[in-house]
Specification:
Distance between the termini: 19 Å
Helix content: 10-25%
Order of helices and strands: HHEEEEEHEEHEHEEEEHEEEH
């Protein structure tokens, strides 16, 4: 593997910046300065930059979490709010894949594999997002029809691929399936058709279902789930 790619994979710098470090004689492999751009090294080679060892990247990890309400879907929050990463307490540097609002609940993925995360979110994979939405009062048939037909939002026309209804103790519960993941999309769509959301929970992303995972609980994905969501 080319040295500049290994440096980039270890988070030292971009490939272009890594090449500049090499030209300046600031990179050593096995104690020897390496300036040649075509130099290849083993992925686990001992590398130093400016005299400091650069650790190999942590093994990739893939986690599904049932995010409770009131937790933000970020690695760090400037306002001191609890984050999904803090719930895990993982030693690895993980970050959430996509977003889920602070006042929403349910399925959130976390990983340290940036390329995999991009594939999960890429439209080419066409992963559906399924939500359980509790709203105030009965839902008019016209509102269901409008959600299926499409709602004009800033990003474009948002359509529910599927909508089904079930009764609820405090109102009505909808099952909504979307093929896009725009910011607060479900809430904005519901507001546009006169529905006030009481509770919003993501229960599925593509082939992965939340299942019986309790709020605040998490688990590592299986190899099959990892491949199904974002390829090998």
């Amino acid at each position: 593997m080319r040295l500049q790619k290994v440096l980039a994979d270890r988070g030292v710098a971009s490939r272009r910046a890594a090449e500049e470090l090499m030209r300046e004689g600031r990179v050593r492999v096995g104690g020897e300065v390496v300036r040649e751009m075509g130099s290849k090294v083993a992925p686990d080679a001992h590398i130093e930059v400016d005299g400091r060892a650069v650790a190999p990247p942590a093994p990739h990890r893939y986690v599904v979490l049932n995010k409770p309400r009131g937790i933000v879907s970020t690695a760090h929050d400037d306002h001191g709010r609890p984050t999904v990463v803090e719930i895990l307490g993982a030693r690895e540097r993980l970050y959430p894949v996509g977003r889920l609002d602070e006042d929403s609940e349910g399925l959130v993925l976390l990983t340290n594999d940036g390329a995999w995360a991009e594939r999960v979110l890429h439209p080419r994979y066409g992963h559906e997002r399924e939500y359980e939405v509790s709203v105030v009062g009965p839902v008019p048939a016209a509102s269901i029809a409008a959600l299926r037909r499409g709602i004009a939002l800033e990003e474009g026309v948002a359509r529910a691929a599927r909508v089904s209804m079930a009764g609820g103790a405090r109102g009505s519960t909808l099952r909504m399936v979307l093929q896009t993941g725009w910011k607060r999309q479900v809430r904005r769509m519901c507001a546009a058709v006169g529905l006030r959301v009481l509770r919003l929970r993501r229960v599925r992303l593509g082939p992965l279902e939340l299942g019986r995972l309790r709020p605040g609980a998490w688990r590592d994905l299986t190899a099959r789930e990892i491949r199904a969501l974002g390829g090998a």
